[in-house]
Amino acid sequence: MDRKKASQGLEKMMWGRDEMSCRSVPGLAGLMLGVVMMAMPASAEDLKSEIAPTGKLRVAIGISAAGGAFWSNKNNSGGYSGVPVDLGKDMAAQLGVPVEYVAYPNSGQITDAASKGAWDVTFLPQDPERETKMSFGPIYEVADATYIVKAGSTIKDFATLDQPGVKVAAVNSTTTMRGAQAHLKQAKVTGYQTYDEIFNLLKNGEIDAFALSRDQLNAMAKKIPGTKVLDETFKKTVTAVAVPLNHPQSLAFVTKFMKDVIANGTMRKAYDNNGLKGTPIRTQ
After folding, report:
1. Residue 227, number of CB atoms within 10 A of its CB
2. Which pLDDT score, from 0 to 100, does residue 4 have?
3. How far apart are CA 214 and CA 17, in angstroms?
4. pLDDT confidence bin for 40, thresholds 50/70/90
5. What is the C-alpha to C-alpha distance for residues 244 and 231, in angstroms, rounded to an integer?
6. pLDDT of 253 higher than 60
7. Residue 70 in contact with residue 124, Cβ under 8 Å?
8. Which end of the chain offers a freer environment for a tag, N or C, measured as fewer CB atoms within 10 Å?
């Protein structure tokens, strides 16, 4: 009899403990859910405070009529158009903040402003020098850099271009300018602030050649009769998304964003909307 009572007492204790455990599971789950729900907004807010500290996503863009997947244009209404403009707008929408475009005449000035807190994200050509000043995410354009020569020029290839006294222009402090300076040993490479300035110099025959991406130079050749784009390529220029240094959450966000827009067709739409229908999206 004592043994039976002891057994029943033990059984009651075990069942009681199980019931307490069952009752505690929903409470524990609720507590964990509450912690997760509290953590998620905090993480989102941390990201926003890092990538958009002013409350807006400030997107640095280069302004030029050159076209392509890097340059943007200012339209008659005072707004902007271009692949970076469309991508910046979509990125800001994902973050739930307004977008603000910060315009520069070239990518060199965007680079110089990286450490000044003037912008939050940009899309620009990447090279080792710029990697010391900002953090790059996925590439979305690869372009062949070459030269266009003025109308009436006897220059027909790189060998006849790289001669003493030959004047070559490039947009100042850009990856293309640094590439041309490394490539040419005798011709003189001079940097100018804007594409438009160099366009007029070439049109007026005041320079011998202009270094830029092949697609942009092919478009230029149609506007300046008699000019010729050389067949050879001296550099592959890669364009990618970038954020200022020491912004790890921002870099993680823009990396995922770029992978998603390349995969889901948003990048293709941005290309097509900005005069780049048929232009392949090259990521390597």
Report:
1. 20
2. 45
3. 76
4. very low
5. 36
6. yes
7. yes
8. N
